[in-house]
Amino acid sequence: MLLLALLFACPAPNDADFDWPDRVEGAPYAGVAEASLKLPLGTPMGGYSSRCSYLGGSSIQDKRDSVFSVGFVESTGLQTRPQIKGMWLENGDDHLLILKADVIYSFDGMISALTERLESITGEALDGRIILTANHTHASYGPFTDAIHFYLGGDRYNEEIFQSFLSQLESVSLEAYETRQAVRIGNAWEKDWDPNDEVYRDRRGDNDSLAIWEDAEPGYGKDPYLHMIRVDTLEGEPLAMAFTFGIHGTTLNGDSSMISSDAPGHVEWAVQEAVGPGVMVMHMQGAGGDVSPAGRDSNYARLESVGEAAIEPVLALWEQTPTSDAPIVMETASRHFDQGLETIRVTRNDTVDWFYNPYKEGYLADDLIFDDDGKLLSPLDEFNAPYGAAFCGSDAPLIPAGNIGSDVFPYSACMDVELVSYILTGIFGLEEIPLPMPSSLKAGTTVSRVGPLVTRDVDGSVVERDLLAGFFPGETTGMYAEQWRRRVEAELGDEMALMVGYSQDHEGYLMLPEDWLMGGLEPTINIWGPLQAEYLMEQMLKTASVVLASEVREPADPLDWWAPTDYGPTPLLEEQPDVTPFAGTELEEVPEYFWVPLEMTVDLSIPERLSRVDGIVQIAWEGGDPSVDQPRIVLEREVDGNWVEVLSPSGRPVTEAGPEILLAHTPDPLYPSEAEQTHRYWAAWQAVGSVGERTSLPLGTYRLSVQGKRYVGGSDTWPWASEAYSFSSDSFVLDSGEVDVEAAEGGFWLSLPAPTEGWRLIHMDGNSRSSNPVEGMIELEWMTADGVESESVAGEILNGKTWIEITPPVGALELTIEDAHGNKGAVAL
């Protein structure tokens, strides 16, 4: 508490020792940018500790080895490329850069390095004004963070992965900075926008009986709020949307080895395709810690179905979001708060006093958690862990000898971090781990206030008020988000404060103390026990009250008390990539061993013709070492004798970045990575379109084109010297889809059959490997002995097919049908 006392003893803003300028309002400006995050295949994925070899290696596909893997299983391909989205806001007086990356969590060391680079290049004061938030996919690159206690979340830190990631964040940031323009901006809220759990659902049953507030039902459920930021040009053209709600990135489970943006990324992709060209779409995570993605169908199609279900409610709010070019005030404060047994304390605005005992070696807790009235007892002596504890809340300790001295649930499974450090040392080849772990002693946080903004409220009314946003370093949960909104309004006077999780740093799950004490999965990951999360919330509230509430622009950390963790230097890898002189050579025969996803049958023959929906084209080639080669595969169409890239409804090229094209990699030999290897790649495209055109791709002549890179030698470390290669597949003609027509009593069943090894979502009421309804008005042609009779009918979707209730004309010999997109079928009568 000494630190907090000193904070509030700091000189007031008008003290003569400080020359703090007044905040100045100004017209809003914004610039946006985006890019695919390209890191080497073979890089381990973060999110599932079960992928750690020591804990089972759940996603292992074969015996391959990678220079980027130490203790985790290697990735093998791409279902979608993770994305980086950036929005740079300013008002002539201050800046705020928001970056979202499709990775498992944020890393404060990345923000520090990026801040230094961008300040040097732009000359702007950006310290504390850069947000890095993650979409929390459990299927993206892991070893970019040097927070040791999260090596079990994504493998040992790798400097090459970090530097490459950092450079790509820098490029997106600078593009956003350079494209700034005067804009109109506003925001909106909606509540209970997914009432049937089509997009996301509550996954935490452990707290169903827990009551925190007298005016709320026990358990609370999933956080019901959707928030929208809309940015338009001064001419009213849409420029950017950033929407926030919580959803876990766990549709693909720990057995999958394919890199993917998972459910959050597919929501973003679907909304992006539906909103149309010219709009940068960014999904930010809200209270995603205790919710799971919903969806339909299976495998990769299930990912698309989650996004498809989100389109209508998200766009409905987007259309209702007002914007204005009126002047705004901006201010942001970022701080790293100390954490530890003697630092953490929760007061709830002086209504409670919860804290831990100082550590005592050999201490046995009283194992009393609540008093006779059900109130939390303090001090919480059960959490007797000098360096923190992990795996609390589970049924039994991972190693019984590592318990922290309490036999009462959920403390009974807590494992002392010192013992965990010995395990980490062995798994990840570390010489030693400092205790306490440096990354566990500080938590990076940011609070920002922007406004007044024109705001659409949950009741549909339009008001003007400031938006106060908290960017939290972990997996915020539903009750935690509700507490933030309530406490901000009660203590700061700001209504509907925004919470963005997985931002700035990572401390595991962020839960209210009462919720943490219910046990379950979520308490197993954070290091500093039940009080950690609300302690951080209280520090953010105090930061907002001290820094953001005044009319001057004081620095967030004038005495350098809340500086980021210093992670120190780490050398780059020196193992050179393989020189691959035949990179760019298309394969005509399937190699003896060739890994592809979903156990698909490999067929490298390019068909001369194929039909919509059930047609699949596969190609394979020798490429470069993954250290330099992250191939781009693009669908092209012949137009007036020229090959042009096919664009999706959003105006973006159809590539492996989206769900349309799969990519896989197989080294030969599989191991060791130090051997001279040949690198073979495989890609597949299914003839299904994007949102709004899944069964209506334009007919014509197509091909797949590949652009990649190969190492040319001569480099000592990353970035490796490389040169480009490219080739194109044979062309093929795309025909309309073939509709199955089945005669039945009283009418006909119509369906578009999917391929037995398909992976694309075709229809929300269909199946990616079976039957799918046809859409729109259906044109019927009855062939009779006297000629042809035509009519149009509307069908009814039932059991994955379309039912037409109709009686054939007398003497009808054949029925030919055509759906709204030109797909055709026929049946003899």
What attributes does this structure have?
disordered N terminus, twelve-stranded mixed β-sheet, alpha+beta, Immunoglobulin-like, 16% helix, 3 domains, 829 residues
Descriptive notes:
By secondary structure, the protein is α+β, with helices and mostly antiparallel strands. It folds into three domains: 2-334 and 440-548, no CATH class; 585-735, Immunoglobulin-like (Sandwich), CATH 2.60.40.2300; 740-828, no CATH class. Strands 1, 4, 5, 6, 8, 10, 11, 13, 15, 20, 21 and 23 form a twelve-stranded mixed β-sheet that branches. Strands 12-3-30-31-27-25 form a six-stranded mixed β-sheet, with no helix packed on it. It is globular and about 95 Å long.
Shape: globular
Number of domains: 3
Low-confidence spans: 1-16
Radius of gyration: 28 Å
* Helix content, binned percent: 10-25%
The whole-number mean of residue pLDDT values reads: 95
β-strand amount: 25-35%
Number of separate strands: 43
Largest sheet: 12 strands, mixed
From the helix content, strand content and strand pairing, which structural class follows? alpha+beta
